[in-house]
Amino acid sequence: MAIEPRSFMSTLERRIGLTDEDKALLQSNEAWGLEIASEMADHFYAYLGRDEEMNAILNATEGRIHRLHETFIKWFHEMFTGVDSWGNNYADIRWHIGLVHVKLGIAPQHVVPAMAIVVYEVGKKLKVDGKPDLLQDALGRICMIDLAFIEQAYVEVAASAVLRETGWSEALFKRLIAQGASSM
Of 62, 45, 150, 64, whose CA–CA distance to 100 is shortest? Predict the structure, then answer.
C-alpha cells in the first residue's frame, strides 16, 4: 500500500488547488517566511508542550525539543522555497517527515490542532506585516498538503504492518476496514 511521494504530491496539489501563482507568491516571500519561522515554532511547540503526552514525547531525550525547533524552522522555510519547486525532493522530504512523526508517536490528533495554531498565528503576523491575503491562502494550501503527508504516513505504516503480520491481501484489509467502519 506504500505511496509514491511525488505522485501523492501531485494528487494533493490538484485536490487542494495549489497553483503556480501560489508557488511564486510563496517563493517571493521566502525571506519573510524564514524571518517568522522561529516565532511560529515557538507557537507550535508551546501548544504541544501543554499536552502531558506530547510534552513527554518532546522532552524524551536530552536536546530533542531544541532539535525539533530547528527542524520546524527548516520545514516552515521550505514551504516558501519549495526546495525544488515542490518536486521530487520536496515530496520525499515531506514523506520522511510523516514517517518521523509516526516513529516518534506524534499522532495527527496532536499535529492537526498544532498546525491550526500555526495557521492562525501566521494569519495574525501577515496582517501586522501588511502581507496580502493571497499569501495566507497559498500558505494554508501548502500547510494542508504537508499535513496530509503526515496523516498518510500513519495510514500507510499501520496498513503495511497489518498486511505484513497477517498475510492478508490489500483487498481483504480494505474490506475489513469498511466493514469495521460500518459497525461503529
Answer: 150
Where residue 3 falls (left for φ over 0; alpha for ψ -120 to 50; beta otherwise) is beta
Angle in degrees, CA 101, 45, 60, rounded to 5 = 60
Q: What is the pLDDT of residue 174?
A: 85
Angle at 138 between CA 132 and CA 139, to 5 degrees: 95
Q: Mean of the pLDDT values across residues 169-176?
A: 86
**170 vs 172: CA distance, rounded Å:** 5
Query: Contact 143/115 with Cβ under 8 angstroms?
Result: yes
User: Quick check: 3 and 151 in contact, CB under 8 A?
Assistant: no
Q: To 10 degrees, what angle do helices 108-128 and 133-166 make?
A: 170
pLDDT tens profile 78-129 = 999 999 999 999 999 999 999 999 998 888 999 999 999 999 999 999 999 9
Residues 68, 45: contact at Cβ < 8 Å?
A: yes
Tell me the per-residue pLDDT of 34-50, one tens digit each, with 9 for 90 and over: 999 999 999 999 999 99
Alpha-carbon span 73 to 157, nearest angstrom? 26
For residue 140, the one-letter residue type is G
* C-alpha–C-alpha distance, residues 162 and 176, integer Å: 12
